[in-house]
Design goal:
By secondary structure, this protein is of the alpha/beta class. The strands form 4 sheets. An 8-stranded mixed beta sheet has the order 1-18-19-17-16-13-14-15, sandwiched between helices. Strands 4-3-2-7-8-9-10 form a 7-stranded mixed beta sheet, covered by helices on one side. Strands 5-6 form a two-stranded antiparallel sheet. About 25% of the residues lie in helices and about 25% in strands. The protein has 10 helices and 19 strands.
């Protein structure tokens, strides 16, 4: 986390804790720090901090954050972040195309784009594919997200860490296909290629599929379970760490289980191997369709997937589940949904969170529960982000 001219003070607790560890490692990436006359790529913040210190920083942050949380009372001992491979882990990269550049926005500046020819966070194959895609897209009009003019908004690369498959999605501002020779050149290098439409002013790297140029999905494999991933469905960004956490979730998934925010069914299907029945609830219908297909192809019969809002579903199904699993988005679960979960009163809650702050806020709305297990994993090395997994049990 270099000292930048525009960053006059640290913005959060992790920045403050990290200050003493700055410059304990040499960055491996040429785009970290100053490059192209700008302040460096915004994809990484910690490359100048030795990896063992990155885990120490995140551990210290979590212990500080949860120190005064009442639900932590039964949990004894310090929280320790478990590390992983620091590079080559990321399954998804959204590469913005603007101002004649293709890459990531400058750290701290929305108006600048760093032109990336490779990325150390991506898998080796995905990084090679990116070089080929850049060459194929030479001459294709990009999109100015400040004036809202242009054509190609994003290239989204998605990978299967264990399957080694790569998907490319071209996010376009209008329903007009690139030249066939461009599509053919990209399709030759990837396992899946789709065209997505994002015509509005909002800065979105997803949208309705215009056409699947090639296959329209990739697969990922977690142990004894395989998953089909389509262009707009969510899947964890770090497969190795996710599978480690899924193993833990599976061990806690007992009896009749409810999986909220179930996405393509990644947790639902994995947990089903230990539960009597699992119900996955997800509001995005494309994800629900993928989840049902994933259940069929894995021959998992003790699951069902429902396309509903989590809050509405819980209001109508109180007291029917032994374990509730939730892995909400970074913003956390809506307070109304957490209050509905409190009223639902399951004996056990397993909460997977990519944002400790919103997780703590959600905890405050569960006064009938206490944490009996809390572990943390470094899902996003080289960044300040950390993933936590808590098991909560209802108080006697």
């Amino acid at each position: 986390m270099p000292r930048l001219r525009h960053r006059k003070k640290y913005r959060n607790a992790i920045d403050r804790i990290a200050e003493k560890y700055l410059d304990t490692a040499a960055p491996v990436c040429e785009y970290f720090g100053s490059c192209d006359g700008f302040g460096g790529c915004g994809g990484c913040l910690f490359q100048n901090i030795a990896y063992e210190h990155q885990c120490e920083i995140k551990s210290a942050y979590l212990n500080e954050l949860f120190a005064a949380t009442p639900a932590m009372a039964p949990f004894h001992g310090a929280i320790r972040v478990e590390g992983t491979e620091p590079y080559g882990y990321r399954n998804r990269m959204d590469l913005v195309c603007s101002f004649g550049r293709k890459g990531q926005r400058e750290r701290g500046f929305f108006k600048h784009v760093i032109d990336l020819h490779h990325c150390h966070l991506m898998s080796e194959r995905a990084s090679r594919v990116w070089a080929d895609i850049r060459a194929a897209l030479e001459g294709i009009e990009d999109y100015n997200y400040l004036t809202h003019e242009g054509y190609l908004r994003y290239v989204v690369l998605r990978s299967g860490f264990y399957s080694n498959e790569v998907m490319a999605n071209l996010v376009l501002s209008r329903e007009e296909e690139p030249p066939a020779k461009v599509l053919d050149a990209i399709a030759e290098k990837v396992d899946s290629l789709s065209l997505l439409l994002s015509p509005g002013y909002a800065d979105l790297s997803f949208g309705p599929v215009i056409r699947d140029v090639k296959k329209g999905y990739i697969e990922e494999i977690f142990g004894d379970t395989s998953y089909r991933i389509t262009p707009n469905t969510f899947f964890q960004s770090n497969s190795a760490v996710s599978m480690r956490m899924y193993d833990r979730i599976r061990s806690e998934a007992q009896g009749n289980v409810l999986d909220l925010f179930s996405g393509v069914g990644s947790i639902t299907l994995y947990a089903a191997k230990n539960a009597s029945h699992v119900t996955g609830v997800e509001i995005v219908e494309e994800s629900v369709a993928s989840a049902r297909a994933n259940a069929e192809r894995n021959n998992v019969c003790n699951v069902e997937f429902i396309a509903r809002d989590a809050l509405d579903y819980m209001k109508e199904n109180k007291g029917t589940f032994d374990t509730v699993i939730l892995d909400p988005p970074r913003s956390g679960a809506h307070p109304k949904a957490i209050k509905a979960l409190e009223e639902m009163a399951p004996p056990k809650i397993v909460y997977m969170s990519c944002n400790p702050s919103t997780f703590r806020e959600n905890l405050e709305l569960l006064p009938s529960y206490e944490i009996v297990s809390l572990e943390a994993h470094d899902m996003f090395p080289q960044t300040p982000h950390v993933e936590s997994l808590a098991v909560l049990k209802r108080k006697d």
